[in-house]
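Quick note —
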Amino acid sequence: MKRTIAALALALTSLGTHAQQGTIKFLVGFPAGASLDAMTRMVAEKMQASLGQNVIVENRAGAAGQIAMNALKTSPADGTVLVMTPLVTVVTAPHIQKLPYDPFADFAPVAHTADFLFAFAMGPATPAKSLKEYVGLVKQDAKYGNYASAATGSLPHFFSLLFAEKAGLKMNHIGYRGTAAAMTDLLGGQIAAFMGTVSDVAPQHKAGKIVAVATSGATRSKHLPDIPTFKELGYDIEGGGWYAAYAPAGTPAATIDRLSKAIIAALKEPDVRQRLDNYGMEPSGLGPAELARIHKRDYDLWGPVIKASGFKPGS
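Predicted structure written out below.
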């Protein structure tokens, strides 16, 4: 009997060691090329060095990140599969529709990685250089009310609904599969405006290709210091989002701790912080307990906003 127990313990230890030595896969539920994907690849590179394991990033784009989250739910709970996601998949989406996963029961918080704000921008074919001009333009010609976000049901989408309500505008949201596709159509004049993250808007604004007209924070973004906030412009709205890493529910606490520490250490690296700053993100590096608290706080915060908007999938 003692030999059997010892053999079982040895087998379990071997399995744990194998999981630690195997490849870690980071799922990203959005296309390559945007800020979330870039951050995940930075973190993966640092984790690979610190953990001595191969860490790869796999894009599972679709359904506003839900495909990747559902894939995570059915993955082994051994630390070999993680997801890096914006809060939309675990905060806003559950208030919109029935999901194939439970945002609290099916996932284990690993690390809160970065915060971000939103920015509203005009494309080169839109003859408005300020938010006031844009509002007037939409009231004169409804076609300028066609605007985009990186995904239907995303937080920038809901923030733009708040703006439209406050401004008394009839605006037509067009959800894309990722920022890159939306930005291409914005630059090409197929859409008039774009509500996205500061990190996705700032580079194109600074290059003179689009015109940012407002940001979503309580104070101005350091990445777009010349651009006023919606509040400054007379609209009593503010908001922002975050990115975080999750593992499947049931992942051992020791494994979560190991992965969390590796992610947080990666975010503290000066070159990573500089590159994230260039993308308009504020690295946070908070552990599982802090992420769980923030997750629940924002879930409770955005629920009433989404309900009041009357938004339904397909609307």
